[in-house]
Structures are given as C-alpha cells and as structure tokens.
Amino acid sequence: MTQPKMPENFFWGNSVSSMQTEGAWQEEGKSLSVYDVREATEHTMDWHVAIDEYHRYEEDLDLMADMGMNMYRIQISWSRVVSEGDGEFNEAGIAYYNRLIDAMLARGIEPMICLYHFDMPLSLAKRENGFMSRQTVDAFVRYGAEMMKRFADRVKYWITFNEHNLYFTDEVFEISGYDHGERTLDDMYRIFHHTMLAHARLDDIAHTQYPGIKFGGMLAHAATYPATSKPDDVYAARKLNEFLNNNLYDAFTQGRYSREVIQFVQNRQIDWDFQPNDAAVLAKMHADFLSFSYYRTDTVNADKIPVGEAPNRYLNTANDKNRFLTANEWQWTIDPLGFRTLMSDVYSRYHVPVFPIENGIGLREHWDGEHEIADDLRIQYHRDHIQAMKDAMFEDGVEVLGYLGWGLIDIPSSHADMEKRYGFVYVNRSNHDLKDMQRVPKKSYHWFKRVMASNGNEL
Q: Catalytic residue among 22, 53, 128, 163, which?
C-alpha cells in the first residue's frame, strides 16, 4: 500500500509569546506590562531580557529558515505598540513588528499573529482590573483593529487570545490583568465573557474588512480521561470537555455558548455581565480554523470533586495520575494518542480545519560549552506526536493546516523558569545569569530539519 503524502502547503513552524522572547522591556517607547514588574525569585527569572529576540530576531529567523520552517507564530506586545494600553499608538514599537514580519517573509516564513498572551498593560490592570472591565475590552479591540490595519496586507493568519479556555479556569486570575478582588466564580465567568466579546468583535472586523484574513480561536486542549469506567468518572470527564473545550468551539464556530454552560449560569445565578446586545455580538463569530496547544492529557476522579463544584473547576482537586502514561519532570504526561483523539473528535464535530499551534516537551538540560545536547526524548516526543497527527489526517480524515512546536528556540517557561526548556536550539542563559545567550543547535535540530526537508513524510 502506497503511503499517503503530506499536503504541499502544510505549515511547519514555531510559536512563542512576546514576553518570553523579546526583552527590551523599556526600549523605544514601550509601556510596562504586568510581566515587567514581576521580580526574579530563587527558581525564576525576571522578564526584562528573556532571550533578547528584540535585538537578535535576524539570527533566530536564520535558524528557523535553516531548519526549514515556513511559519512563525508571534505575539504582538500590546504594551509595546499602545502607550499604557489605551493611549497613543507607539510608532517605534509598530516599526519593530514591521521589520520582524518583513524579515520572516524574506525567508519564506509565513507570519501568524496572536494579539494577547497574558501580558496585560500594567496601567489597565491597575486602573480597570484588566478584563474585569468593558473599558479594557474596548481598548483591546481598538488595539487589535489597528494591528490588522497595519499588517493584514502581509499577515493572513490571526488569533486573539492564547489558550482562550484558560480564562474559564482559575488561571484567569493570573493572565487577565486581574489586579484585585475575591477571585469568585462570578469574576471568572465575567472575565471569560468579556474576552469572548473582544474576540467576537475582532472576528467581525477581520471578516468584514479584510477578506484575505484567516481568523481562528485557540484553546489549551488537554483532553481529560475518566479515572475508571465508573459512570461518575465518565460523566465528569464529559462535563469537563463540554465546559473547557466544546463551549468555546461552539462559540467560535456557531456564535453561541454551550447550552449546558448557559443552564449552569442560570441555575447558579452567576453574574457574568451578560448585557442585552451581547448575544448579537457573539453571533457574528465565524472561525476559519480551530487551533490549540497540546502537551498532555488529564485524568479526572469524580470522588475528589467537591459537592456543588463548577465543572470548569473539577481539575483543581480531582486530577489523578494516569498510571498508563509516563511524564516529564513537571508531571506532564506524554500521550500522542490523545493528540490524535482530540483532533479527530474536534474535526468530526465541527468540520472546520484544525491547527495544532503549540506542541512540545519541557526538559531540564545543561550545555557544557562543547558537546551537542543529545535530546533523544524530545525527538521521540515530536516523532510520536507528528505520527499521531498523520494518523488523524490519513486514517480519520481530519483536515490539519500545520504543526507548530512551542518555543523551538529555548525560551523561559510561562512561569519564568529558563530551566524548563522546549527548544531544538539551546539558548545559553540561566534564570539568574544572562551569560552570552549563544544559540546552540541540539541533536533534535538536525532531526527536525530532516523531517521538514521531507515535508513530514519521513520521520
């Protein structure tokens, strides 16, 4: 039997955020974000330099081009391009992204833009309590609309919020500019709803004003298994999937929240600031693709769920260790079959192209200054996940647009730990010592280069 070939227009590439790459936290008119004022701790770094890509992007793009990447998903720093988040546009900051985008295109690398990756402008966090306020929603839409105006002629693929379903978990209070409050369920649902309104308004602008744009939603999709075949466990896993995943996919593709979520809000009398015109705003959503990060799977044990707990909070207490899976040092399970399963489930339900735009494994690594880092576990992880993706495509009929790894040139983790490394390229710095930040290809670099040279046909 002849092996099917990967599509010629398939995207292979890298995803990052601005605060984890750029540095230059006070240069050329950049305002402060909430990350800029977070101090280093014993086991974490500050965010002032990151990997200094603001000054070294040409070097990093050369490495990506040499590997054979044809897409790079970046995030625009809201604080870099808009003074204090809702003031004047900062032309020097915008000029940086112009240079970066043009440099990508010159190397045959398609840019994808994410507009928000947890780094709220500090002034909006302090004054408006981040996305608790509709004033922040208005400021974000103004910023996003201007970025489309500036870059839509060269950037086809756009997303608004990185891992949007995290705004329906307790992580929301760390990533939405939430500066003060009681961290209540009402606050969580209010912030989530506000961010969905922001997405919907920009979705409408994209599709009505820029017909060449492909606009999609993005989730952190960690599929959840029942801990056993006990019906309570199976039901809890289903309920979690409905609240954390399908609720957003429904909104992105059909312009409405899940009926289960709406019923829960009504039953619990949650005040999520749903105003009379909001349904009409949400109804304008139309996703051109459904994107997600995928690193691991979870396992829910219904016996550990507190009575009356909101389904989107089940994993706070009821996430069991899966005895059938191995995990990395940070207890993130390795589950390529889960990758295939979620792609097949999502595509079968929504019939919209899917796009995994983050995938990878964090490992603790040290470079001795001479020998190549032999990251065989990373190679195996990506090989198995790419094969699972191909199985979803060629055996399950899933339309997949591409495969983007996460942080394929080492960057600090989202919790500011430079020692949790995802890259094919080592960056020579630690949490507290910048060293020379030399870029050093690992063994996986050469493997991925061969994979992309074959368009993923040879693993």
A: 163
- Look at the pTM and tell me if it is higher than 0.85: yes
Token pair for 87: 């003031």
Q: How many other C-beta atoms lie within 10 A of the C-beta of residue 428?
A: 16
Residue 114: phi and psi, rounded to 5, are -110, 135
CATH number reported for the structural domain that contains residue 239 in this entry: 3.20.20.80
Q: For residues 89 and 29, is the Cβ–Cβ distance under 8 A?
A: no
- Domain encompassing residue 68: 28-350+376-401+447-453
pLDDT digits (tens, 9 = 90+) for 236-286: 999 999 999 999 999 999 999 999 999 999 999 999 999 999 999 999 999
Q: How does pLDDT run across 204-242, given as a tens digit for each residue?
A: 999 999 999 999 999 999 999 999 999 999 999 999 999
φ, ψ of residue 455 to 5 degrees: the values are: 55, 35
Lookup result for tokens 């949007």: 164
The closest alpha carbon to 216, from 91, 114, 331, belongs to 114
Active-site residue identified among 53, 110, 128, 358: 358
Return the axis-axis angle of helices 91-106 and 53-67, rounded to nearest 10°.
20
163 classed as catalytic: yes
